[in-house]
Amino acid sequence: MFQGFSQQTLDFLWGIRFNNDRAWFEAHKETYLTTLYRPMQALAEEVYETFLTRHNTLDLVCRVSRIYRDARRLHGRGPYKDRLWCSMERPKEDDWIAQPVYWFELEPEGYSYGLGYWAAPPVTMAKFRARLDRDPEPFSQLVRAFQKQKIFALTGEDYKRPKGTTTPLLNPWYQKRSFSLACERPHDEGLFSHDLVDRLLEGYEWLLPYYDYLMLLEGDPAPAP
Fold it and tell me: The sheet that has 110-116: what strands, in order across it?
C-alpha cells in the first residue's frame, strides 16, 4: 500500500538535477529505489487496481517510467531524468501517443496529474476537429462542465495558424496541436500520505467522460486533407 513520498524523495530529485552523472546516481541508488521508485510503483498499482475495479470494462495498463534517459537522445543532457511518472493507458506500443493517457508526475518543483495526450499526431487532432464540426453539442456540454471546476486546466500548444473556425466556447480546444487536462501543484502535505491515492482517484473519476469522448476518435475515419 502506498504510504506517501517523503522529504528524502524531493532531496533526491533535486540532487539528480544538479548531479546528473553516473557516479552520483550509483552512490544514491538505494535512496532512489526506496524513496522514489518503489513508492511510485505502490502508488501506481493501488490507483490502477482501484480504478479498474470500478471500471472493469476499460482496457488499460499501468506503467511507471524509467529514470534512465534514452542514450540516443541525450542531446547534451545527463543520463538521468530529474522526474518520474506513472500512467494508465491503452496497451498499444505502436501508436500510444495517439491515445489519451491518465498520468501522475513528480518533479523537484511540484507534481501534476490529469488526462491527455503525450503528443497527439495531426490525424488525431483532425479527427477531433471533424467531430466538433459534425456535432458540437456533446463536447460543448463537457467544456461547460470543465469551465465550472477549478482543479484542472486546459494545457497544450496552439497551432501557429488557426485551423478553421468554431464556436467561442470550443475554439480554445479546436486550435490545439495536442492537449492535456492538467492539475499542477507545488509540493503539499497530500504528497506525503495515502491521501494522494484518493486525490488521484477523485480526479481520474471526474475526467472519465473526457476520456470516453476522446476514445471515440479512434474509430472515426481520417478526414480528407
Answer: 61-64, 84-89, 101-107, 110-116, 180-186, 153-155
Q: What is the pLDDT of residues 10-69, one digit of tens each?
A: 999 999 999 999 999 999 999 999 999 999 999 999 999 999 999 999 999 999 999 987
The grid coordinates of residue 149 equal 471546476
Distance CA 118, CA 97 (A): 6
Query: Rounded CA gap, 159 and 140, in Å?
Result: 21
H helices of 19-54, in order, are 22-27, 29-32, 38-54
Q: Is the confidence at residue 76, as pLDDT, over 60? A: no
Distances 59 to 93, 99, 149 between C-alpha atoms, Å: 14, 12, 27
Beta strands at 84-89 and 110-116: parallel, antiparallel or unpaired = unpaired
Its pTM surpasses 0.70? yes
Look up residue 27 and give its three cell numbers: 552512490
Report DSSP letters for 137-186, one per residue. HHHHHHHHHHHH-SS-EEE-PBPSS------TTTHHHHTBSS-EEEEEEE
Query: Residue 194 and residue 2: Cα distance in Å, rounded?
Result: 6
**Strands 101-107 and 110-116: what pairing?**
antiparallel
Distance CA 61, CA 52 (A): 10
Distance CA 160, CA 94 (A): 28
DSSP annotation string for 57-72: T---EEEE--SBPPGG
Cα–Cα distance for residue pair 7/11, rounded to 1 Å: 6
Which sign, positive or negative, has the C-alpha torsion 110, 115, 117, 118?
A: positive
